[in-house]
Amino acid sequence: MASISLPRSLLKHLKDEERSSVKQITFFSMRDDKLYRVTQNAGTKQNVRINSHVLASNIPNLSVSDLDEPVNISFNILDQNASNLQCVYWDESSGVIPGWSSRGCRISKHVSGKEIVCSCDHLTSFAVLMNVYQAERETDNALSIISKTGCAMSFVCLVLTIIIHVCFRKLWDLMSSKVLVSLCSSLAVTYFIFLVGMQSYVQTMAGCKAVAVLLHYFLLTSLAWMSVEAFHVFLSVVVVFKRYQTSFMKKSSILAWGIPAVIVIITMAINSTNNYIKIAEVCWLNKPSFFAAFLTPVVMVLIFNFIIFSLVIKRLISTQRNKRFEHKRRKVRVLGLVGLMILLGFTWVFAFFAVREATKVFEYLFSIFNTLQGMFIFLFYCVYKKDTRDVIKESVNKRKRANPRRVVAGRRFGNEIEDRRAETNF
Question: Using one digit for the tens of pLDDT, what is the confidence trace for 350-405?
């Protein structure tokens, strides 16, 4: 049977004047959460389903929290087959998006399919209840760990890639390096936003919208620079590229940074920014805006990259038959592009296959490959690519030749230490 048990120390932390004003403690019970669904802003609905009656207790005009002894609430489970149960309460404190919150509440007893007892360290005017995610399967913690770990590794690798291609003059003078640095910069910011902003502690509506807007923009710019990278290699392989080099980077920058900005501005302008909402624990686009302002550009980029990929492969096959065509650098560059397009562009296709029985498999593939994009870029363009390795080796050798005295002095100092050690041991 549903019940609420209050601790004896309930009024312990109240001031004398507050304690004297306590005349009654109110209790109420509701069969469902319709009242809260009406109260809750439609743009901030969480993907939850209430799995119990709503029970509440409060002291009028007083807020009771941080109790030494918990308030115990016993619930009868409505859906006996439900999983991922949580003890939650309705949080409507200032500066926080109204919704169900589990802060300060925990499950102290659970009889599977029958009863659950929640223990909370506060007493409010809203119900302490149970909640179960409406999704058909439980939230997969492994996916979250993979995503966060992959993003952290990729962020570090992208920063290293940017430093290498900017600091070495021979690399930075190349058009391909400028395109690569732009792509890496966009992806690095995207990973940073995901790691810092896409967390449950972003509770305010303004913070939620800001995170969603920034993530939307930099994901689109990353996709745009992927297309620029593909088109750049297409020009260098299929056509004579020298005539386009002077204006290519300028035009590419305008398109790659500008078109996503236009899409985001239009999305913000329509429906007074309510297209960016909080869904469960993350901030993102609502469904109509997601399909129009994100999924559509993703599909267009994938189609474009696939066409470019096919043309480049066709060109490679035709040139390999021609014995006169031998350009080692170009081949290495194209191999790098093939790896980049498979690991960056085509991995987005995994998301489209995440349906029915194959959902979990393709979700793991999508998370692994897309969160490790930065690491793959570093491996292909800094470790695998011979041109980059040669430039780094040449620079290191030049520095050694430029400072021979330091090398000789270092050797002499090392020899003296060894001699002293030998004398001491003798």
Answer: 666 655 555 567 677 777 778 888 888 898 888 888 888 888 888 888 877 776 65
DSSP string for 87-115: EEEEE--TTS--EEE-TTEEEEEEETTTE
The 8-class DSSP code of residue 204 comes to: S
Domains and CATH numbers, the chain: 3-123 (2.60.220.50), 134-392 (1.20.1070.10)
**Can you give the pTM of this predicted structure?**
0.65
68 Cβ neighbours under 8 A, 6+ residues apart: 7, 9, 12
Nearest-angstrom CA–CA distance, 111 and 41: 34
CA 267 to CA 264: how far, in whole Å?
5
Instruction: Give the CB-side neighbour count of residue 75, counting CA atoms within 13 A.
Output: 34
Q: Estimate to the nearest angstrom the gap between the alpha carbon of 238 and the chain centroid.
A: 36
Give the Cα separation of 114 and 79 in Å (integer).
Answer: 9
Residue 276 · residue 284 · CB < 8 Å: yes
Q: Residue 417: its pLDDT value, please?
A: 43
Contact at 8 Å (CB) between 187 and 373? yes
